[in-house]
Amino acid sequence: MTLWWLGHLAEQQDEYTKAISYLQPALEILQRLKSPHAESVSASLDRVMRNS
Questions:
Q1: CB-CB contact of 43 with 11 (8 Å)
Q2: Could you tell me if 48 and 7 are in contact, meaning their C-beta atoms sit under 8 angstroms apart?
Q3: What per-residue confidence (pLDDT) applies to 50?
Q4: How crowded is residue 51: how many other Cβ atoms within 10 Å of its Cβ?
Q5: What is residue 52's predicted lDDT score, i.e. its pLDDT?
Q6: Residue ranges of the alpha helices (H) in the chain?
Q7: What is the mean pLDDT of each run of 10 residues along the chain (52 residues)?
Q8: Is the dihedral of CA 1, 21, 9, 11 positive or negative?
Q9: What integer pLDDT is reported at residue 47 of this predicted model?
Q10: C-alpha–C-alpha distance, residues 17 and 32, integer Å
Q11: Model-level pTM?
Q12: Rounded distance, CA 30 to CA 28, Å?
C-alpha cells in the first residue's frame, strides 16, 4: 500500500517514471497476495503509462 501511495504522489507531481517505479512492484506484490486492491493499482499504472 505504501508503494501505491508513493506512486500516486509521484503521479500528482508529473513524475511518471518515478510513479511507474513504485506502482509496478506494488502491483506485483498485491497480485501475489491476491489482494482486491491489485485492480486499482493496475488502473493507476495504466493511467501513468498513458501519460508518460
A1: no
A2: yes
A3: 95
A4: 10
A5: 87
A6: 2-12, 16-32, 38-51
A7: 96 96 98 97 96 90
A8: negative
A9: 95
A10: 23
A11: 0.92
A12: 6
With contact defined as beta carbons under 8 Å apart, do 9 and 26 qualify?
A: no
- Cell 511507474 sits at which residue? 20
Q: Which residue has the cell 518515478?
A: 18
Closest of 34, 35, 30 to residue 3, by C-alpha? 30
**Cα 49–chain centre separation:** 10
Q: How far apart are CA 6 and CA 41, in angstroms?
A: 12
Distance from C-alpha of 7 to C-alpha of 11, rounded to nearest angstrom: 6
Rounded Cα distance between 14 and 38, Å, is 22
Q: Rg (Cα) of the chain, in Å, rounded?
A: 10
Retrieve residue 35's grid coordinates: 489482494
